[in-house]
Amino acid sequence: MTKEELKIKLTERLPAASFDESGEWLNMIIPPGNLLQAAQLLRNDPALNFDYLFCQTCVDFKTNLTMVYHLTSTDHRQPVVVKVQLDRNKPEIETVSHIWRTAEFHEREVYEMFGVNFLNHPDLRLLILPDGWEGKNPMRKDFEDPVNMIKL
Amino acid sequence: MYRETQIIKDASQVSPTGGDLEGANFDDMVINVGPQHPATHGVLHLVMTLNGETIKKIEPHLGYIHRSIEKMCESLTYRQFIYVTSKMDYLSSHMNNHCCAMCVEKGLQIEIPPRAQVIRVLMDELTRLASHQLWWGAMAMDVGALTPFFLAFREREMINDIMEETCGTRLTMNYMVPGGVMADLHPNFHKRVKDFITHFKNKIGEYDELVTGNVIFQNRTKGIGYISKEDAISYGLSGPSARGSGVQCDIRKLYPYEVYDKLKFEEIIETGGDSFARYMVRMKEMRESLSILEQLIDNIPEGDFQAKTKAVLKLPKGEFYSRVETARGEFGVYIVSEGGTTPYRIKFRSPGFSNLSALDHMARGSKIGDMVAMMGTLDLVIPDIDR
Is domain A3-95 in CATH 3.30.460.80, yes or no? Predict the structure, then answer.
């Protein structure tokens, strides 16, 4: 499947999505409310069959937090990048850990590093940070630690 | 059709280390494996909930060696950040550097000279061999055989010597730079690699004799740590761990980079899904790597080892992703650039992190003694998980 074919298929099925084709792979931007529906469609639709979540992360753009899901299929091998923009003050999004099980770990990492709250996540606890960590989320752009951070 | 798993919030999901114990089963025993434990090969902390000898749940606690490399990279330039990445998966440091260099090249649209491409592939395959040798020794030691460790180090030492001569260091090489490699090959390189190939070809049979055919070893790994193909995909497994379950996932074959599309090699797939299948994938992969070395060592093209690049690298605004196959699986670098000299955000998709997430699923219901056999064949490198 090529990038263009994938775009046609996705536009038919997800009217709420907008696309950006500037990168190497097709970028799909969807509103936070539609993520769960979109994820289920991407995973379960036989024509799409995106079964492999190979990278899940978050980017702090100062104006918003953007969740980035890199998906591919073991079937047709055409990756797609799903992006969801979240409110920076109250970031909340549905979990996808029951659709792609690897997301459980990745979401825990994003939760502690960026403070994104994943709704319905089975086990949303700190993974890397020490127990009892208080204060800001380290990977956000406004995080400052005068003692431990080295800036060049 | 793939069935979605139910989100359950029952007593077994309650953290044994903290939180409320209301409803918890007090017949269960909670033991800590690590942070300092020889079988974890690093500082990995596993909290295991046991019922008798049966594992009910494994909860990894990470962060003991977290150096916040992703955050650190945000203040390093595109030339500097590559050196930090050697310290993530220290057994695949060439491949880590390779992936980062490729991502920067993708952004700058640099074509690298043919000589550099071949050198990169040679170095990658040597590293893969060294990593698999170390894994083989350590894995056999985990399940109780001590001799393989010494044999593996004997061969690995030869690779380390080759690396030392050309790259200057033995473990964290920092040899790949945007545009090619840092220095040309050492004059001894060709001869030493040839010697190594002849030597290792004779010795690899010894590996099989000593461990693969061993009845005790087979009993300890066959049927242990089973993971189905669907689960392996869903848990994001990659590399030999996934190929042991029959998932086709070799980046060298699927998305060829450098000269991999011109080489003849097999993607090793086993369908057993257990620890022994994962073991066999790595053993066969060593032979494939040897064959790649043989194909390339006499055909290193002449020419530059580095493309001409500007002193200060500036990536255009946008997002770049590159992926390579390391010894442990798929390694990815995701760079978000705002057009400056430093990355705005960088994410390293490390194979170990995803592979570890499947450990709990694999281990549930099996005996505590089998846990090391599972961890051994997942080939976890802790700094790679923690980053």
Answer: yes
